[in-house]
Design brief:
The protein is of the alpha/beta class. Helices cover 56% and strands 14% of the residues. The protein has helices spanning 15-26, 33-41, 45-52, 54-68, 86-95, 105-112, 127-145, 157-172; strands at residues 4-8, 29-32, 74-77, 96-102, 148-151.
Length: 173
Amino acid sequence: MKTNVAIIGFMGAGKTTVARALAKRLNLEYIELDTMIERKAGKSIKDIFSEDGEIVFREYEIEVIKDIYRGRDTVIACGGGVILNQINIDRLKKRSVIVYLEVSSQVLLTRVQGTGTKRPLLNTVDKELRIRKLLAFRKPLYERAADITINTTKINVDSVIDELVNILNYHES
C-alpha cells in the first residue's frame, strides 16, 4: 500500500508550500528533496550547479530518493527535475501517490521572477523563453509520472489542499 505522497511539478508550481501544508493537514512527516540533497552534498543547490554541474546534482537526487523511498507516512516535495530520471519515478511510485501540480507558464514566470540566483536553471537573460522550453520538454514527463494532477494556476494553497485531501481519500478507498 502506498503511504507516501510525492509532489512533483515545475519550479514555482507550489510543491514545497503544498507539501508542507498537506503534511501538516494529514499529520505526516514532511521531506524536501532539495534540502536533503544540500545536506548530502554539504553545499547549496546553487553551488552544486555552479561547481559540479547539473549531472552531479541529478546523481545526488537519485541517491537521496534511494535513501528515502522506503519511508512511510511522508509527504515529499520533489525538485522540478525529478522526472528527468525514470529511476526516481520508479522508486517513488513503489510507495507514493505522485501528485503533479500543473500551472501555466505565465503564472510560473510571475512566481519565479527575480529568483534566478536561487534557481540555477533560470540564471539566464530570457527567463520566459527558458521556462517555456523547459516546460514543453518536461510537461509530458510530469503527466506520465502522475497519479493525480491538480492545476494550481487559479487556486490558492488551501483550495489545493482541500481538493488533494478529497482526491487522496477517494484514491485510497
